[in-house]
Amino acid sequence: MTPARDTYPVDIAGVHRELPLFEVAPGVRIAVLNILGDVELTEAAAQALAERLAATAFDVLVTAEAKSIPLAYALAVRMAKPYAVLRKAYKPYMGQALQAETLSITTGQPQTLFLDEKDQGLLRGQRVALVDDVISTGSTLQGMRLLMEKAGAQVVAEAAIFTEGDRAKWRQIIALGHLPVFTD
Q1: For residue 170, what are the β-bridge partners?
Q2: What is the dihedral of CA 155, 156, 159, 164, to 10 degrees?
Q3: Angle between helical axes of 39-53 and 69-79 (0-180°, round to 10)
Q4: Taking CA 79 as the corner, what is the angle to CA 143 and CA 124, rounded to the nearest 5 degrees?
Q5: What is the mean pLDDT of residues 114-138?
Q6: What's the DSSP call for residue 56?
Q7: What is the per-residue pLDDT for 1?
Q8: Would you say residue 45 lies in a domain?
Q9: Is residue 58 part of a domain?
Q10: Which of 159, 163, 153, 161 lies closest to 59, judged by CA?
Q11: How far apart are CA 97 and CA 10, in angstroms?
Q12: Does residue 160 lie in a domain region?
């Protein structure tokens, strides 16, 4: 049985969802967007973001695993662009991967992002659009930017379904909406 939770209502490109609130630190709750398995929401968000990204000249979409992978895929299909996924764990088949550390608000733990050796060639010298589901503290985004710099790629756009927290921090982000951080 799923426990009863407070929710925060959102409308994303015409699709309504009630996002559950989870405590991520004492007295701090966030509305959690989880698009994994939510085809309707992912498709609607991808269409809306594709329309907003259409005016930006870029070559490759880049995202970090895991929740934003379906969004990056749906965007790639709509925009006829390749995409790369920055991984959160190193596997031997990734070869000489590049790496950068990040700290996620949802895990509260330091994480390392890895750029697979095979994707380094895809990104070198290219203009990239970074894509995430929610940009909150900016730590994952910073790690993604650092990896793009190491790979020799130029970040020309940053997009997300939502930004979160201090809205003024995220003016350059192409986003479909903004989520508050809830404090008791």
Answers
A1: none
A2: 70
A3: 50
A4: 45
A5: 95
A6: S
A7: 63
A8: yes
A9: yes
A10: 153
A11: 38
A12: yes
Are the C-beta atoms of residues 136 and 170 closer than 8 Å to each other? no
Task: Tell me how far the alpha carbon of residue 85 is from its chain's centroid.
Answer: 10
- Structurally, how many domains does the chain consist of? 1
Question: Which one has a higher pLDDT value, 131 or 89?
Answer: 131
Angle among Cα 85, 37, 170 to the nearest 5 degrees reads 55
**Assigned token pair, 111:** 């994480």
Instruction: With respect to residue 28, please indicate whether it lies within any of the assigned structural domains.
Output: no
> What are the structure tokens assigned to 2, written together?
């799923």
* First CA to last CA distance, the chain: 26
Give the contacts of 2 (CB within 8 A, at least 6 positions apart): none
For residue 81, give the CATH number of its domain: 3.40.50.2020
CA distance 33 to 71: 12
Q: Does the CA dihedral 163-55-129-82 come out positive or negative?
A: positive
The residue count of the chain comes to 184
In whole angstroms, how far apart are CA 67 and each of 58, 86, 137? 22, 12, 16
Which residue range is the domain that position 139 belongs to?
39-178
Average pLDDT, the chain: 93
Joined tokens for residue 15? 């699709």
pLDDT over 60 at 158, yes or no:
yes
